[in-house]
Amino acid sequence: MELVPLVFWLLTYTLLAAAGLPLAARLFRPLPTRGAGFALPVALVVLTTVGYWVGHVSFGIVAPAAGLLVLLALSALAGLDRDALRERRLELADDLGIERAVVVDTAAVFLVAFGFLIAVRLVDPAVHAGGGEKFLDFGLLKSLMRSPVLPPEDMWFAGEPVRYYYGGHLLTALVMKLSGVAPAFGYNLSLAGFYAMLVTAVFDLAGSIYAVRSGVAAGDGGGSDGRESNDGDSTGRSGGSRRARLVAGGFGAFFVGFASNLSTPARLVLVWAPEPYRTQLAQFVADQSPQLDAGEILAGTDSFSYWSASRVIPGTINEFPLFSWLNGDLHAHMMGTVFLLLAAALGYSYFRTPEGERRRRLALVFLAVPVVGSLQVYTDTWSFPSVFGLLFLAVTFAPSDPLSLVSPRLATRVSTRLDGSWVGTELARTGGALAVTGLAGGLGVLLSLPFLLAAGASREVALLEPAMRSTLGGLALVHGAFLLAFAVYLYRRVDVDDRLLLLVALAVVTAVAVGQNLAVFALVVPLLIFGWLALRMDRDVGYETVLVVAGAGLVLLVELLYVKEQAGPGRMNTVFKTYMQVWVLWATAMGAVLPGLVRGSPLSTPTLRPRAVRSTVGVAVVLFLVASTSIYGGLALGQHFGTQSGSTLDATAFADQQHPEEAEAIRWLDRQADAETVIISAPAASNYPGATSGSYPYPPGMYRWDSSPAASLTGVPTVAGWAHEVGYRGPEAYYGRVRVVDAAYTGSEADFQTLVDDHGVDYVWVGPAERARYGDSLAVTEMDGLTVAYETEEVTVYRVGGA
């Protein structure tokens, strides 16, 4: 029977992608693929945006129905021949330019990626509480499915709306409503869907960039390495174009979907190093990663854990896609990646659009990007600035003048007045790009105001103290594969004078890095500076370098600033949410960079080395990068399939196996509850602030099965759930509720009645967590006005107010 939700889910994806294909073809007309790899994300942007706005009036079935109707209407406007429509005939417009081979390639990549993640989730589908945020993610899905309007009620803070960015969960809920798939299956199917969309998006964008850069998209048969053409009419209708796209897209898909950082190969290489260097190097690697000690490193594969590679730089989280999807959270930093790539692709479409097509450029900048940006606000707020940072870079480096978007006359007047001044021209271009980006960003904010006003939380941005900055070794282990490829690429793409400038710049920034404890300066600032100059000085680079600059800017930013918040100490969350963005941008750039290294592409000036030698070196570099970043995937997947067992996509099946009586009580509550139901259960917080260690109250804490399982697995709000609420609402609000709930369980009739009156409590949950937390102090079971509504040996649920 589990095949049924899988088929329904894929069928819904297929219909949505088909509706999104004409829209993608219009948005990405300058790309060789016509954006086929973005058809499903484009459709989901429309569906979710409309569903989000309509959902504030009525969610239920109205929101997905309205979103689907708008999507179909836009698809018809984009894809149907209008002359044929006037004659009452349905025909596709002739100028869509969608190739069947491109659609077949895209579908194949999506299905392979989707099938891979389904296989991963089949053996470990559980939304268990440990090691991640699965209780949060699944609870959000259940809350949305239960909610009559948006925003949904917070399952861990009854009576108040969710303050977490829930756009990806909203998207999943809309697909579940359209497909008829239940959350227990929708959770894992959506995980596979987001993974497949990300891999397919990178495959499409990397392949398009390389096909254009290598010349085959311009119809020259693939023999040119000249600078990227921006005529907007190159369609890449050649076998050479398809081969180029498949090679580059394949590299991109590998680096976003399977590759890891260098911490795992670094550990294993040390096993073969001679003494005493082996022990010394092992200690050095251990110093870079708080998750390891030298003994574990020297144990080789025997001590391997998939978790350690995500905790390399002390005080931070350094996740990459394969780790995240193996871990299996349906979390914002994962779901937002495909829309970040969509923004990057829209930037590339602008980059390739001729200056004369002003209406098209206006539509991309002031309509398409703001809509994607607004979705990102409530899907993954952390990457909202990155959407418009990418727009700024695309507008800055595109051949067309940014000021021509505002007024072609103004652009001409400014250009004439500057009279060839390079500095003045660059300042005018940068200022114009900033102004355009600011206007587009303002539109994105306006489109997401309901979420911003409801979230109502502000964060302080602070300077990073020198002691908190990353070490050179830590940065190299996390980003080293990308940095090596980009350094070789840029070095080979420029002439001798530029190389000298690059070496001087590297020496200067290294000196600054040593003096100011800023290791990041030595690694990414040269990429930033030289990439920027190469793009603006018309060197032999293209949009892949825009992505390199974007990622380098993000890495630099989190070494200088961080966001102060409750979600983790120091800059942990800032690096966590930012590094995933860096990974997907740089993985896309890798797809466009590596084929050129293999081919040994010629430089813009003569070189002493023959092309065959350059190609051999390039092949060696690529083989090293692919081999070294594959080790983690091989070990992690072997461990995953070797130690896990199961054959279900039901995310809640584990509860029946491990906690059968509580699971049955949770199902009972799920059936009985409506949109107004509220429960109380033991708060998922150990001690009050300031309490002495081990003092009452103590269990259940977080990241455990007994941490609010009833609320998390049903979406029925509890008055005080996980201590995550401290980050959303502050410690005073959360712990104030914790005290009130504890008093209701252990105090007087008056304490209990006050809680019921203030929060409209319908059921009192008494299970293992409540007995562990309150012990002999548990008094609520003796209260008047409570009746047993459901009872097993482990769980008793009391109804408030009689039978």
Describe this structure in words.
The structure is a single chain. This protein is mostly helical. The protein has a domain at 659-800: 3-Layer(aba) Sandwich (Rossmann fold). The strands form two sheets. A four-stranded mixed sheet has the order 3-4-6-5. Strand 5 (786-791) and strand 6 form a beta hairpin. The chain starts with a helix and ends with a strand. Residues 218-227, 229-238 and 602-608 have low confidence and may be disordered. Pfam families: DUF2298. It comes from Halogranum gelatinilyticum. Keywords: Membrane, Transmembrane, Transmembrane helix. The chain crosses the membrane at residues 6-25, 37-55, 61-80, 101-123, 184-203, 246-264, 330-350, 362-378, 384-406, 427-452, 472-491, 500-533, 545-563, 575-597, 617-637.
Number of separate strands: 6
Radius of gyration: 28 Å
Class inferred from helices and paired strands: mainly alpha
Largest sheet: 4 strands, mixed
CATH topology of the domain at 659-800: Rossmann fold
Helical stretch tally: 35
CATH level 1 class label of the domain at 659-800: Alpha Beta
Provide mean pLDDT, rounded.
88
Low-confidence segments, given as residue ranges, are 218-227, 229-238, 602-608
| CATH architecture assignment of the domain at 659-800 | 3-Layer(aba) Sandwich
Strand content: under 5%
Query: Which of globular, elongated, flat, extended, rod-shaped describes the shape?
Result: globular
Strand order of the main beta sheet, please?
3-4-6-5
Oligomeric nature of the chains: single chain
- Helical content class: 55-70%
Protein name: Chlor_Arch_YYY domain-containing protein
Keywords: Membrane, Transmembrane, Transmembrane helix
Transmembrane segments: 6-25, 37-55, 61-80, 101-123, 184-203, 246-264, 330-350, 362-378, 384-406, 427-452, 472-491, 500-533, 545-563, 575-597, 617-637
Organism: Halogranum gelatinilyticum
